[in-house]
Structure formats: C-alpha cells, structure tokens
C-alpha cells in the first residue's frame, strides 16, 4: 500500500503528456514577443520560409513556437505572400516555376 502510494506521487510529479513519453515539455518563447524589433513582413520571403513546410503548409504554433497573436499575423503574412507569388501555394506549383 505504502509502496503504491509512492509510485503514484512520482508519476503525477512528471506533469505534462510529453514527459511521459520521455520528451521534456519546454514552453518555447515566441520569437516575435522576445525580440520587439523583429517584424512579420509578407514581402520578406526569407523570413517566412522557416514557417512553411516542404508541402507548402504553414507550420502550426506547436511547431513554430509562436504565440496566438503572432501565429495569426504569420498566417496572414504567408497567405498574402502566396497571393503575391512570393510563397507558393503547393509543391506542384513550385515545380512549374
Ligand atoms: Zn508573440
């Protein structure tokens, strides 16, 4: 009984889901919140590139590590850039160009 109780407390002290799988859950600080000088610019293809995957998808916030506010800004910027032809809509489109 005593042993079991101990086991239970150690498990609960592990906390979040990620750590159960051996992955430490560390909250990434939003890049744009940390550095106020940094701006999300839809005209800057190089700045947007790390947030667009090989399949030309916009990275979700759990990958990009951005806060909700900046994730929305980023999404908007990528979509604008797509319309302007700076970022492609699909990998197929990329192959044509
Ligand atoms: Zn932010």
How does this structure look, described?
- This protein is mostly helical.
- It has a single domain (about 30-95), classed as 30s Ribosomal Protein S18, CATH 4.10.640.
- It contains seven helices and no strands.
- It has helices at about 1-15, 15-20, 30-35, 45-50, 60-65, 70-85, 90-95.
- The longest helix has 17 residues, at about 70-85.
- The chain binds zinc ion (ZN).
- Zinc ion binds near residues 33 and 66.
Keywords, separated by commas or semicolons:
97 residues, 53% helix, mainly alpha, single chain, flat, 30s Ribosomal Protein S18, binds zinc ion
In short, what is this structure?
This protein has a single domain (28-96), classed as 30s Ribosomal Protein S18 (Irregular).
List strands and helices in order, with pairings.
Elements: H1 2-13, H2 17-20, H3 31-34, H4 45-48, H5 61-64, H6 68-84, H7 91-96
This protein binds zinc ion (ZN).
The site of zinc ion (ZN) has 7 residues, from helix 3 and helix 6.
């Amino acid at each position: 009984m005593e042993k079991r109780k101990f086991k239970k407390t150690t498990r609960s002290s592990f906390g979040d889901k990620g750590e159960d799988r051996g992955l430490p859950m560390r909250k990434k600080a939003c890049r744009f919140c940390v550095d106020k000088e940094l701006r999300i610019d839809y005209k800057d293809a190089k700045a947007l590139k790390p947030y667009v995957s090989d399949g030309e998808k916009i990275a979700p916030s759990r990958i990009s590590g951005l806060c909700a506010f900046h994730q929305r800004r980023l999404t908007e910027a990528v979509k604008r850039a797509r319309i302007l032809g700076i970022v492609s809509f699909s990998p197929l489109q990329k192959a044509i160009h």
